[in-house]
Write a structure and sequence with these properties.
Layout: E1 2-7, E2 26-31, E3 36-41, H1 42-45, H2 49-58, E4 61-66, H3 71-79, E5 83-86, H4 92-100, E6 105-106, H5 109-119, H6 130-134
C-alpha cells in the first residue's frame, strides 16, 4: 500500500507533516510493503489540485495522512476510495508508527469543516474541479 503524506518540504523539513495537501508543497510517498519513503514536490506529481487525484490513482496511492483537509477535498478523495487519516501531531515517523499500530483515525466531515472556517468554506478556495460538478 502507498500512502501520501504532505510534508513541509522535501529536503530540510521532510519529516514534519505540513498543514494540508497543497500543490506548492511537498509529499512523502510511503510504501508500507518496503517500509520506504520517497520525497517530492507535489508539483512534480500533479500541476494543480484537480490533477492530484488522478495522479494518486496512477501511482496506486490508496491513503492520505494529513493534519487538515478541505471538506470538498475530503469528499472527492473518499468518493474515489482513498482513505484520509488524521495525523497525530506533525512528526512523520511517529505517524507511520501510529499507522502500523492502527491508531490513526479517519477524517470525518465534522473535522474537515473546522478547516473550512480557515479557508472561508468556499469551494473556489480549493482550486479543484469542483466548479464543473456544480454546473
Amino acid at each position: 500500500m502507498k500512502i501520501a503524506i504532505p510534508v513541509i518540504d522535501k529536503d530540510l523539513q521532510r519529516n514534519r507533516i505540513a498543514g494540508s495537501l497543497s500543490v506548492v508543497g511537498s509529499l512523502c510517498i510511503y510504501n508500507t510493503e518496503t517500509k520506504e519513503g520517497s520525497w517530492m514536490k507535489t508539483l512534480d506529481l500533479a500541476p494543480n489540485m484537480g490533477e492530484l487525484l488522478p495522479a494518486f490513482e496512477r501511482n496506486n496511492i490508496s491513503t492520505v495522512i494529513t493534519k487538515q483537509v478541505h471538506p470538498m477535498a475530503l469528499k472527492v478523495l473518499v468518493n474515489k476510495g482513498i482513505v484520509v487519516l488524521k495525523s497525530v501531531g506533525d512528526e512523520l515517523d511517529a505517524n507511520l508508527r501510529f499507522l502500523s499500530d492502527d491508531e490513526l483515525k479517519p477524517f470525518d466531515m465534522e473535522a474537515a469543516m473546522k478547516f473550512a472556517t480557515v479557508c472561508g468554506g468556499e469551494c473556489d478556495d480549493c482550486k479543484t474541479d469542483c466548479d464543473d460538478e456544480k454546473k
